[in-house]
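dumping the sequnces here before i forget
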Amino acid sequence: MEPKQLKVGWRTFTLNFKWRPAKDSLGSIHQEKSVIRVARSLQGIRRAEVTLHELLHSVFHVWSINQHMGGDDSKEEAVVEALGHALVTTMKDNPEFWQWLLTEVQKGESEAVQKEGPSVGPVPKGGDGN
Ligand SMILES: [Zn+2]
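..and the predicted 3d for all of it:
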């Protein structure tokens, strides 16, 4: 069963895996409507790659990553494409690692503070109404 929603920082995206793209697109994200669409023809690792790709676009938006790259929006697609492939490849090659990482994340902040672990990074900016 596919997930229906994806929480990305302060945003919640609706996931649509039944999308019939008009062009040869495989995935899309509508930042203002908070919708991620993935072509219904995709399955398995290709579906995972495209879904992760769109998730990464939402991460760029929510954490204002383009601003950290000098406000250059033109680099987003190339960076998202490379990161998506890299992450899916490391998931495919190291499933036990990723399961371990998820287990550690699910232990939550209290244990992280207890062990005085490193920060998990900046908290995304609060809601701007979008
Ligand atoms: Zn893209």
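The chain has one domain: 5-105.
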